[in-house]
Design goal:
By secondary structure, this protein is α/β, with parallel strands linked by helices. It has one domain. Strands 3-2-1-4-5-6 form a six-stranded mixed β-sheet, with helices on both faces. Helix 3 runs parallel beside helix 4. The chain is globular. About 35% of the residues are buried.
Length: about 260
């Protein structure tokens, strides 16, 4: 249930377990899945990689975070996804800062095996982080989307509909990337999957994370489940199978019982 977008309170009602018991299960499973991801997602063969960030909040909205606690308020999930295999190669959760951007780029560098092409959005921290982690040993470009002001700006319905994208600029930063592969469409589709199947990222609900540690466990659980247990409709197998990390779909039980 935790992997399929069911909230903590709903699981408690469906199973008859106390909410804290469900959270304890999440903590133990999330820790185990995080270690499994760390150990098994490595030596990824080169393919076009796309990076993006998605917003959520923890405990309260940022405007109510009066103490500027780094574990409260706005949080961002940094994701890097393989365009061909749909594999989540690396991720990080935290503030949208240059430091966390460098963290996810460093993690990506450690997991890839060889030179590859990377596309990110227009966030200013990416060029610096990519240069520091990869130097010139990468083909890197940014896709900057251009949005038009909607006629409905200011109306109540504006909060629930996306802004109209009128175009995009492809800016080459390092190397010689294939312009046809400069895209963030696949990672943005992965973002949608995260919001659909991880309750803590669902917008305009009470399912947001109350504590950062459980947000981290939930992200660990989802990323590993998505890679190793989820049959992706685009590749007709799990992303880990498509990337050659395993020869079969794994079960949750197998991951939990795998020795560290």
């Amino acid at each position: 249930m935790l992997c399929e977008g069911v909230g903590i309170r709903a699981i408690s009602r469906l199973t008859g377990l106390h909410q804290q018991t469900v959270l304890n299960v999440l903590a133990r499973a999330g820790s185990k899945f995080g270690r499994f991801f760390e150990t098994n997602v490595k030596n990824i063969q080169p393919e076009p990689i796309q990076a993006d960030e998605m917003w959520c909040f923890c405990g309260c909205k940022e405007r109510m975070n009066k103490t500027h606690d780094q574990f409260k308020g706005d949080q961002w999930l940094f994701l890097t996804t393989g365009a061909n295999t749909k594999l989540i190669v690396s991720y990080a959760i935290g503030k949208r800062t240059p430091s966390n951007t460098e963290t996810v780029m460093g993690d990506l560098h450690n997991r890839m095996n060889g030179r590859f092409q990377l596309t990110t959005d227009g966030f200013d921290a990416y060029p610096v982080a990519v240069r520091r982690e990869f130097g010139k040993d990468i083909d890197f470009a940014q896709l900057i989307k251009i949005y038009a002001a909607s006629k409905e700006d200011g109306g109540p319905e504006r909060r629930y509909s996306p802004t109209v994208c009128t175009g995009a600029r492809k800016i080459v930063k390092i190397g010689n990337p294939d312009r046809d592969e400069i895209s963030t469409s696949y990672v943005e589709r992965t973002n949608l999957t995260v919001r659909l199947f991880n309750r803590r990222f669902t917008r305009l609900t009470l399912g947001y994370s109350k504590k950062f540690e459980y947000l981290t466990h939930a992200v660990n659980l989802f990323a590993t489940y998505y890679n190793f247990c989820w049959v992706h409709s685009a590749v007709k197998m799990t992303p880990a199978q498509a990337a050659g990390l395993t020869d079969r779909k794994l079960t949750i039980e197998e991951i939990l019982l795998t020795p560290d």
